[in-house]
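lol ok so funny story. i was supposed to be doing the assay writeup but got distracted and ended up predicting the structure for this chain instead. priorities right. anyway since i did it might as well share w the group, maybe its usefull for someone
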Amino acid sequence: MTVAAKYNSLAEIRGRPWIVVIIALFYIILIAVVSFVKPSSFDWNESFYPASQELLHGRSPYSIPTFLSVPWTLIPLLPFALLPERIGSAALFVTSALIFAWVAYRLGARGIWIAIFFFSPPLIHSLWLGNVDALSLMGFLLPPQIGLFFILMKPQMGMVMAVFWLVEAWRQNGIKQIIKVFFPVAAALLLSFVIFGNWTATRGLNPINTFWNSSWWPWSIPFGLVLTALSLRDRRRDLAMAASPFLSPYIAHGSWICVVAALLPKKLELSVAVIGMWIIFVIRALQM
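and the output, tada:
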């Protein structure tokens, strides 16, 4: 979409405020329906909601053992945390679904291909548990200065993209561009340690040893290194999107959505990947 087309679309919405009202009502109705038919999500219930409550009351969110993310992860969740727990969970569900749809659209998917993306096990897993994978995935498509804040919510999804942006910044204007791109997030990280201390220290929960860790590490490392090298050599953002899970010793099932998203421009590959994941899921379910 051209700049003129975007401007015309925004102007049309401003000239018809009822469009905004209808969208807002539809959003609220979706949240109400989800809150009625779906129980509160596990990750929201056990981690993000209580951590947000701690922050809202002026206390450290890291008193919640299951909250292990960078502190600004909670900022976009605070509006949901002001709601009753179940309604906040539903609001996160609906918002995450809309973000996933936006990402798919931005990456070129339309119609049935967006539906196939939504049918992928990682996306369903992320939505059902109430995690922030959608926010982190959105970061891949934002300008690097902003996107870094989002991909660092889930470094197991975005660490290679950070390297990709670092190399691209160097190629554009050397150290000056690197400082321009990385200074905001570096300053935020430093400030987080000043406020919360060493929040990276383990507090009784080692996610690597949890049953929900779906990492293939260390056997996946060669694949991750190949994807990283190719992304940097060929300047392929899609390969950078897909590389991180293969290099991480910990990744939950839902965070593999970045690999699925990288396949969105390729219809055949996307279909094969989603069908393959469901075949594996069925086989494992039958073995239990």
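The mean pLDDT is 89. The chain has 14 helices and no strands.
back to the writeup now i swear
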